Amino acid sequence: PRPGAAAAPPATFPSVRAAVACTVQVLQAAVPVARIGAGGRRRGSGGRFSGWGLPAAATLLLELHGSRRGLAEQQQQTEEIVRLNGGSSPAWAEEPEERGRLWAMRHSAWYAALALRPGCQGYSTDVCVPISRLPDVVVETKRDLQDSGLTGPMVGHVGDGNFHCLLVFDAQDPAEAGRVHAFTQRLGRRALAAGGTCTGEHGVGLGKRALLLEELGQEGLDTLRRIKAALDPHNLMNPGKVL
């Protein structure tokens, strides 16, 4: 059944670390969050793209469900955690249409990223790390993007430690394409070093085969291959990949 009440606030923060730290603290406080997502300072472009009009700041989106009384308690608890992390006072959106507009900003992130560099190509990659390590890994990744001279807005579900880098680059520029490839490998290894996985939702495909070996080891990979051979002896399913 649908919850008796729902609310979603957009809150902005002085830094990406503060926004992600707030996420971690909300979850640790056992606030029953229905949906949660975060974005870096370029998320402001997503706000403009979707028509929401949020500033170019680190942004945290949450959605809370529950009874009217329970929701009021959750809102109060969330507001306090946001305030302690330097965030703006959440402007709670309770009407379905208003909440839909708010989440449209998250859903339009890919197109907003492409709009940053018209005519360029987009490449999305992701990793997943333990929630306690998420703030450090996100900050290190942001620094890596800046040092590499890459355009790569970050967005994430973050409630499960998963975040995406939406890389926008000139595919006709071999040097820039090389920097993108090198960055994605560093990102995967950064996640592994933090006790996470080199891929969250996107899968291994072709680009992360070496990283999967580093993550699972040869014995782990051989075990997966034996399972694959037992279920698909003729290699009909998804041929040519790591398994």
UniProtKB/TrEMBL annotation:
UniProt keyword Flavoprotein present: yes
Group of enzyme by EC: oxidoreductase
Database matches in Pfam families: FAD-oxidase_C
GO molecular function annotation: D-lactate dehydrogenase (cytochrome) activity; D-lactate dehydrogenase (NAD+) activity; flavin adenine dinucleotide binding
Keywords per UniProt: FAD, Flavoprotein, Oxidoreductase
EC code(s) of this entry: 1.1.2.4
UniProt GO BP: lactate catabolic process
Cofactor(s) the protein needs: FAD
Top-level lineage group: Eukaryota
Key word Oxidoreductase present: yes
Annotated ranges, domain FAD-binding oxidoreductase/transferase type 4 C-terminal: 11-242
SUPFAM superfamilies (UniProt xref): FAD-linked oxidases, C-terminal domain (SSF55103)
GO annotations of cellular component type: mitochondrion
InterPro entries named among the record's database cross-references: FAD-bd_oxidored_4_C, FAD-linked_Oxase-like_C, Vanillyl_alc_oxidase_C-sub2
Family the UniProt entry places it in: Belongs to the FAD-binding oxidoreductase/transferase type 4 family.
Name of this protein: D-lactate dehydrogenase (cytochrome)
